[in-house]
Amino acid sequence: MARAIEIYDTTLRDGTQAENFNLSVDDKVRITHALDDLGVDYIEGGWPGSNPMSVEYFKKIRGVQLKHAKISAFGSTRRINNSADKDTNTQAMLQSETPVITIFGKSWDVHVTDALKITLEQNLEIIEDTLHYLKSRVDEVIYDAEHFFDGYKNNREYALATLDQAVKGGAETLVLCDTNGGTLPHELPAILDAVRQRYLESKTPIKLGIHTHNDSETGVANALIGLGHGIDHVQGTINGFGERCGNANLTSILPAMIFKMGLECQAKDHIENLFPTSRLVNEMANLRHNRYQPYVGDSAFAHKGGIHVSAVKRNPLTYEHIEPEKVGNHRRILISDQSGRSNILHKAEKWGIKLRPDDPLLASIMSDLKEKENLGYQYEAAEASFELLMRNALGIQRKFFRVDGFRVMNNKYRMDRPPLTEATIRLYVGGSEVHTASMGDGPVNALDRALRKALTRFYPILEEMELTDYKVRVLSGEYGTEAKVRVLIESTDGKCQWRTVGVSINIIEASWQAMIDSVNYKLMKEENDSGN
Predict the structure, then answer these.
(1) 195 with 205: CB under 8 angstroms?
(2) Which of 19, 240, 322, 349 could anchor a disulfide with 246, C-beta 3.0 to 4.6 Å?
């Protein structure tokens, strides 16, 4: 039987250290659900001792029921002047109430003397003491040996001694970290084999893990070499986000270890979720997808023409190293894309929409979807808009109202005061015309207020709905301020959340599209729930 590997995701902590990569607490919760659906074993939620957002995340995630993944808090060994029970960082990790705590400590003697400014013996003391204190208070303790490979190359005996202290303290998993990302693949086997042999000879039941960075463009390669040399636990981030040049990319590691190395992991049964998970993380971070990314990029299985296309149509193996559907992606040259068809049928079943595989309207939905995506729409993080698109294509979406026009006025009367924004809307509900206006904190808020003001007399249920998040992303910078933008809106009615999308060269128009979808989705949902 193949060896089972633990997958440890640190997108929500290490990934957020990437430049321009930012997530709200709600974004982190949604990504947590996606990682759980993917089959990730451990999800590192943040460093509670370093920022309030991590504390808030851990409070919110306590009430969330996950199917498989364990949440881990992250932090450092205690400070030399504090005992563990009085160390604020250590106590913050315990207060997060996670079943797992991951502690990092120094393995490189240079870091001990120059960064921590303590003796080598004192570093060994705080490693063992911190882990021993936490071991009796949580279900599981993981030890990240920071800068291990650099430390090993500089002072082999001391780097190994830090691991021994972690084991004495109660660590069940030792994670060897290439924190600077400078170790090359040919250097790893001898080091990994030496560490593994050390604990085999001592008969110490310890799991070995690996955590690599991508500063030498070898993060994934080093992780895979680790898996080939007895590593049982691999850490990384979705899409390789991380400080500087990033972390080892789990969207490349997972399919490689599953389909090419024959290794077992929980994610193997859910690997088709890899593509949508990758897209979701990018959308939540408001970042453009890397189309050239292996396995999950739009171009990963795209064939442009000539000999390649001819060969792929006869036998996809000629120019594809795996079937794209295995990771949830699709082959771009096939217009009757079976992955796209199956995804639409799956969504239809999920939403209670009757749609047969041989229904001619399925091709119409796929055509609409392709046209929308060519215009810049993305539906991975805006399923409410996609459901409305599908219902409209099938002719089963009720027209709750018709908008004839709107206007937004933004006036700056005094430079030392905020501008005044007013929106006016003219719409029809049945045969009734409504013409209304509302002030707001900015054009989107004013439009939102005016729209609901016009509709609530007909649909009082809209009073419980509110906009909770608003993201704008420029899709291309070719025309400066004339560039096309995509707006993602998140709404809630207190019972559930939904997201909608709009695209235009006009930010107000894009916002309006997403807003109209949001209101229509709410009304459609209420109608379906009431059985009308």
Answers:
(1) no
(2) 240
Tokens 């509900």 belong to residue? 429
* Reported pTM: 0.77
| The pair of three-digit structure tokens given for residue 185, joined into one six-digit string | 């693949």
DSSP 132-149: HHHHTTSSEEEEEEETHH
DSSP state of 264: B
φ and ψ of 105, to 5 deg: -140, 170
Q: Which residue pairs from 196-204 have beta carbons closer than 8 angstroms and sit at least 24 positions apart in sequence?
A: 196/229, 196/230, 198/160, 198/163, 199/167, 204/167
Residue 72: other Cβ atoms inside 10 A: 27
Alpha carbons 529 and 461: distance in angstroms, whole number? 13
Helices (H) and strands (E) in the chain, counts: 17, 14
The residues near 526 (Cβ < 8 Å, ≥ 6 apart) are 461
The rounded distance, in Å, linking the Cα atoms of 252 and 301 is: 14
Q: Is the pLDDT of residue 193 over 60?
A: yes
Q: In one letter, which amino acid is 236?
A: G
Mean pLDDT of the chain: 91
Q: Which residues contact 176 (CB under 8 A, 6 or more apart)?
A: 145, 148, 149, 191, 192, 195, 208, 209, 210, 211, 226
Nearest-angstrom CA–CA distance, 112 and 123: 7
Pairing status of strand 485-492 against strand 497-504 = antiparallel
Q: Is the pLDDT of residue 479 over 80?
A: no
What is the distance between the alpha carbons of residues 373 and 367, in angstroms, rounded to a whole number?
Answer: 10
Judge whether 108 and 70 are in contact, CB under 8 Å: no
pLDDT of residue 49: 78
pLDDT in tens, 415-435: 888 889 999 999 999 989 999
Query: For the chain, how long is the longest CA-to-CA vector?
Result: 84
Please, are residues 174 and 191 in contact by the beta-carbon 8 Å criterion? no
**What tokens were used for 109?**
């003697």
208 vs 419, residue with greater confidence: 208
CA-nearest of 238, 218, 237 to 226 is 218
Our CA dihedral for 355, 356, 361, 364, rounded to 10 degrees, sits at 90
Instruction: Tell me how far apart the terminal alpha carbons of the chain are, to the nearest angstrom.
Output: 53
DSSP secondary structure of 89-139 = HHHHHHHTT-SEEEEEEE-SHHHIIIII---HHHHHHHHHHHHHHHHTTSS
Q: Using one digit for the tens of pLDDT, what is the confidence trace for 386-414?
A: 999 999 999 999 999 999 999 999 988 88
Domains and CATH numbers, the chain: 6-284 (3.20.20.70)
- Strands 6-9 and 42-46, sheet pairing: parallel
